[in-house]
Please model this.
Amino acid sequence: MLARRSVQKMLNESVAYLSTEQVKRLVAHLNRNNRDAIGAEWELIMLAALASMGVVEHEPNLGGTSRLDVRFRSPTLKFVADVRAVSDETYNRENPVQELSTALGEQAAILRKEGIAGGFDFRVNAAQADPRRGKYKTKLILPFVHEFQEIIFDAAFDDYLANIRREPSKVHHHAVDKDAASVSIVFNPGGLGGRFFSHPAYNLAHDLIHNVVYQALERKSRQIKRAGPRASGELAGVILCDAGCAMFHSVHGVGTVALNQVIRTFLQKSRTVDFVCVVEVIHSIDYGSTAPPRFSARVWSTRHPVLRDEIERQVNQSFRALPTPLQSAINTLNQFEWAGKTQRLWGRYKRNVTMRDQSVEISLRGVMDYLAGRIEREEFEKIVPTDWLAHLRRNLDRGSGIREVSIKRCPGEDDDGLVITFGGHDPAISLFRAPEDH
Model:
């Protein structure tokens, strides 16, 4: 979510409120570059934010058998809380539609190698949730990934591919209609291999209790109970952080329940948890807006409505002390998966560069990776805008030299700008010229 440089800066500063062992554990989780790292980053974000507003203790000993993530003190507020990153990971494993998209993309790539351009669109059907009958989830009618070959890519699909090869310029339809799979596939000729797919939403809540948010709150409630007694006037809360959970952004619709309803139901039942705080990265949805993403907190409390407002105010104010987030948790996870073990891809290359008549700014890391032979020209031109390179080339071709090369530091990003400023005539790369005053 934050630039890796920003995360490192927060780790360096965390020694003011974390022990050496606690910092090492956070670093170990952050370096896993998976969902575990998302949870660790959220934990560090919350600790750093609250530490800017008051006194923070991580994993305080309350005399019980478990430790909580946060104990917070300010002149107007004191609470203990546990942080939980909530995602749709379980839903996604049960509904492997992304894996099906990848598999069909691989089939399209095989066809492209044979000279057949095109890609597959598809639609997956679902068994809809019916809470009255004890069915609390919408389930896509798809097999497990290891069963794709047997159930979807079977002999009938081989015949379908054979028809595409015989008539590659035509649209071809194929249906998988089985108990374990209900998929409609269309081959459209031309264009790229990656196309369009659709399916009913499977990650929304259809019941107030049987959903990922309520279950996360119950688990944290039990942990707070095991932690031990709290001080007089000390509230207990759960901080839920968005790690790719559709319920954080969905609204109440036909047959579904909203996040607000789920949290209120939990708080009405709970005798342990005083408040629930939901934290996420907000992107502006206004047309043409250039507002950067920001952290945002919403707080619920049925027993302490006045303190609810104070908690929400202080948490949102504490976010102002943090660097600006670059992306959501789910986009961070996607980048982890895309980058794999290639360390240079863990941080993003600089894209918001500038071009003026007498200068051009490009990615410093991109230039260094290209000069060092870590990337080829093709990848370099994906990092640096081609118009920027063309502007540089035009100035060199007309004999302009380089007056200055400087670095534009961008501490809130994972890359800096390399600013190349053009000078006057350079005879080393162009024809001699008569002096201008003769």
About this structure: The radius of gyration is 27 Å.
